From TrEMBL:
One of its GO terms (cellular component) is membrane. Gene3D superfamilies: NAD(P)-binding Rossmann-like Domain. Keywords: NADP, Oxidoreductase. Putative oxidoreductase. The keyword Magnesium does not apply. Pfam families: adh_short (PF00106). It comes from Mycena maculata. Belongs to the short-chain dehydrogenases/reductases (SDR) family. InterPro entries: NAD(P)-bd_dom_sf, Sc_DH/Rdtase_CS, SDR_fam. The keyword Oxidoreductase applies. This is NAD(P)-binding protein. It comes from the Eukaryota.
Length: 264
């Protein structure tokens, strides 16, 4: 039986970062590529011009759309694992955010898209990688599933209620997945960002206001990498870390005893 003592991202040999063409994903992909262990980093995203820029920084790249249909995702992931058999970490950074006011007309297509990209697609992608990661686990090799949720999963914002709900769903899934995989070498590491400098806010026109409060991206990346290298199962810095400690009680382990009894 595997023991889930802290496992550092330094142990990863090949890391796929989905959503690496901007924001947190891009910054973390570059930071991981500079670890002393020098893992192979595959930067995945939709925008070819951004991928080319990452190629110039010596990262491997992959054009990848999380909103693709299930068959396309499966073919892409299977071919990726065949090409990179040492792939042992996937970091899911893709996300979209819409402001929704339920006092007014609600664009349900946006609501559905937001839930799909932020929750349903990550669950599908993780499920498609797990057979490979469980095979590595059987060889006593660690692997990493790293979803990026949000501080808004802990304390929702009325300005982005569906985004908050989608990230809360992904957080809930991550906690349950970690419990299910407790007896394996698959490490579920949730990254919980606070408000961070990001292009995510540009389309909504909220950047000028939020820039007064957000954590600079470089500072956030440095602190998050510290948590990943320590082997934290929940990497929450800044205000997200404060809220997590206040409302979740980091000293209280997740109650997995019931799950283990059912398996026996």
């Amino acid at each position: 039986m595997a023991s889930h003592t802290p496992v550092s991202i330094d142990n990863a040999k090949c890391v796929l970062v989905i959503g690496a063409t901007s924001g947190l994903g891009r910054s973390l992909a570059l930071a991981i590529s500079e670890l002393p262990s020098r893992p192979t980093v595959i930067a995945a995203g939709r925008r070819q011009d951004r991928l080319k820029e990452l190629e110039d920084k010596k990262l491997a790249t992959l054009q990848f759309d999380v909103a693709a249909d299930e068959e396309t995702l499966k073919k892409t992931i299977d071919s990726l694992v065949a090409k990179y058999p040492n792939l042992d970490a996937v970091l899911l950074a893709s996300g979209i955010q819409y402001q929704v006011d339920f006092n007014k007309h609600v664009n349900l297509s946006q609501v559905n898209k937001e839930m799909h990209v932020n929750y349903l697609a990550p669950v599908a992608i993780i499920s498609m990688f797990l057979p490979h990661f469980l095979k590595l686990s059987a060889e006593s090799r660690p692997s990493f599933v790293i979803p990026i949720t949000s501080g808004l999963a802990l304390m929702p914002s009325p300005y982005v209620p569906n985004y908050s709900a989608s990230k809360a769903a992904l957080r809930s899934f991550s906690i349950s997945l970690r419990a299910q995989l407790k007896s394996t070498h698959v490490n579920v590491v949730e990254i919980i960002p606070p408000l961070v400098e990001s292009e995510l806010h540009d389309e909504q026109g909220t950047t000028p206001m939020l820039a007064k409060f957000w954590m600079p991206l470089d500072e956030y990346t440095t602190k998050t990498m510290e948590g990943l290298r320590r082997g934290d199962e929940q990497v929450a810095v800044g205000m997200a870390g404060t809220v997590l400690k206040r409302f979740e009680g980091l000293d209280q382990p997740f109650p997995t005893a019931g799950i283990e009894r059912e398996r026996k």
